[in-house]
Structures are given as C-alpha cells and as structure tokens.
Amino acid sequence: PEECSVDSRCALEEVRGVPLLERIAAHWDRVAAFQAFPQDLLIATYPKAGTTWTQEIVDLILHGGDAEKARRAPTHIRMPFLEMASPNPALAGITELEQMEPPRVIKTHLPIQLLPQSFRETGCKVIYVARNPKDNMVSYFHFDRMNLIQPEPGPWASYLKKFMDGKCKLAWGSWYDHVKGYWKEKDRRNILYLFFEDIKENPAREIQRIAKFLGHHLSEEILHNIVQLTTFDAMQENPMANYSSIPDTIFDRKVSHFLRKGEVGDWKNHLSPEENAAFETHYMETMSDCEIPFRFVI
Ligand code: A3P
To answer: Which ipTM did the prediction report?
Structure first.
C-alpha cells in the first residue's frame, strides 16, 4: 500500500497490543514463522539503546578484530533487521536472513513476547542492550525527527508524555515493558543483558564480556583494536557503520544524524527541571516491580 512508500511516514498498527510500523504488522505472519538456528545470535534492543554500536563490537569479535572484514558491507546488510519490511520485498530483513547461512547475527527491536517462537525453541544466544530511559527517549525523539519512515514525533513535551504512557504509542511500544520483559527472562533464556552506560564507561571490560559470552578469547592487542574501532568518532567516520548508505529521502540529515552524540546524560539538555521531576516520580512507580540498575550519569 502507498501509505508506506519510502517518502512518507508510516502509521502504526498493533500486533498483540504492541504498536509496530504498519509495514511490519503487514507481514507479521512471516516474522512469526521465522526459523532461527541454534548457532544464530540475536541482538535485541529498544530502539536507540545502542544496537548499532553493539552490532559493530560483535562483528569485530567474530572476525578477530579484523577491521577490513567488518567493512565488507553496511551494518544492516551484515546483520539484517529481523522484522523490518520494505516496499521492495527483496529488502525485507527476513528475505535477507533466509539467504544467509547460520551462524547469523540478527538485529531486532521486538519485545520478548513478540519474538518468533523458534528463538525460544532453539535456545540461541541473545544479547540485550538497555539504555537509561531519559537518554533513550532523547535519542529516539531526534531519530523520529530525522527518520522519515518513523511516525511524526511532534513537539518534545508531548513526546515525553507518549514515552511515559502505559499504552505507549511509539513504535515498538513501551520502553518500560521492553526492558523488564528481557530482564525477567535473562537467566532462563541465555540472555546477556548489557547497559549502554557500562559500555561507555569501560568499553574494554564490556567487550571482553561479550566475547566470553560468544565463546571467544580476545588478546590484549585485539581487544585494544576493537575498542579503538568502536569509539563514537571511529564509527561516525566509518561508512560501513554509520548508516551513510541510507538515502536522504529516508534519513533527513539536515535534521539530525544517526550517530548523533553518543553520550550519557544528554537528557539534561532536554528535560526541564519540572519534566525531570515528573519523569522520576513516574519512573519509580513504574519500575518498582522490577528493579533494574539503570544509571543516568556515569
Ligand atoms: P544518540 O542519539 O544519543 O547519539 P541504535 O543503534 O540503537 O539506534 O542507537 C543509536 C544511539 O547509539 C545514538 O545515540 C548513537 O549516537 C549511539 N551510538 C552509536 N554508536 C556509538 C558509539 N560507538 N559510541 C557511543 N554511542 C554510540
């Protein structure tokens, strides 16, 4: 349908109560039937929590820190986006994944209850990355402004309300439900649960943890290389890691950039003292049934 062509913002349509881009909901049967293999690796996040950063780290680990190998193709070709659909069916994540041999590295933003059943059945490894909700929300706001297939974000004050709403109407649904869903299942389901703030604070430590989870041991030299290759500046300059292959008709770079700031605490430049106080109160209440150690500053 024309509603979802490349140059118009997508409407949202709910799948089991979770708002998704209409183009994703439209091919939901294919997503639900996706066949994962035991050797596959799933990188799962709420949008803007550090997906691309983690993908680059993982790809470098799997290739022994070889920068050239990691530059073989742009991120979304190397590690397809499971549920993403496109007006061109050949560009759907599922089509790309079906043409790849396992072990595949798969990106998803789906909340855990919407993952295709085969992920649970095969028990394949999952890396989940979570980011503190204030920075995550700010990053998502700027992304929704610049990504012309995402729904219109509207003004900041109303975006903040939408983010906090229990019936969140942002694409991929509620941040709160998302981070809790994976947290509650992490020990039962082979999930390495990481935090954006930890990677930022001590990338070497977190990269070594990811490597261990994947059954790799990194020498000090390779570890050092991966740290250098995955800094914000290095990735921003790397055309295979900075989404520069996505045309301006989709990413409006006059508005914002995919690698925008990459910091912890940028929320202080966006939330007024009143907004921050209201956010804190709501956060305490909403997260009281599931305490996850988020850090808002490092
Ligand atoms: P900002 O908008 O705060 O800059 P995702 O990949 O999940 O869409 O997340 C994008 C966010 O991760 C953006 O946040 C982006 O700048 C940040 N990011 C990507 N690579 C990074 C890196 N190497 N170091 C720090 N932040 C990074």
So the answer is: 0.99
Residue among 192, 189, 223 nearest 210 (CA): 192
> C-alpha distances in angstroms, 60 versus 65, 227, 238?
5, 10, 13
Active site residues: 109
The span from the CA of 161 to the CA of 147, in Å, is 20
Tell me the best of 136, 172, 228, 232 to mutate to test the pocket of ligand 1, counting ligand atoms within 8 Å of each CB and taking the most. Answer: 232
259 lines ligand 1 (CB under 6 A): yes
User: Of the residues 55, 197, 259, which should be mutated to test ligand 1's pocket, given the most ligand atoms within 8 Å of the CB?
Assistant: 259
For 250-290, write each residue's pLDDT tens digit: 999 999 999 999 999 999 999 999 999 999 999 999 999 99
Tell me the pLDDT tens digit for each residue of 39-54.
999 999 999 999 999 9
Pocket lining: 203 vs ligand 1, CB cutoff 6 Å: no
pLDDT for the residue numbered 168: 83
Q: Of 116, 50, 117, which is closest to residue 83 (Cα–Cα)?
A: 116
Of the candidate ranges 79-93, 127-141, 184-198, the one whose mean pLDDT is the lowest: 79-93
Letter for the amino acid at 104?
R
Q: Which atom of ligand 1 is nearest to the CA of 142?
A: 2
Cα–Cα distance between 33 and 207 in angstroms, integer?
A: 32
Q: Whose CA is nearest to atom 20 of ligand 1?
A: 53
Distance from the Cα of residue 297 to its chain's centroid: 20
DSSP H helices in the chain: 22-25, 28-32, 51-62, 67-70, 75-78, 93-98, 117-122, 133-146, 156-164, 175-185, 196-201, 203-213, 220-229, 232-237, 273-286
Amino acid identity, position 247:
P
Distance 113 CA to ligand 1 centre (A): 25
- What spacing in Å lies between the alpha carbon of 263 and ligand 1's midpoint? 8
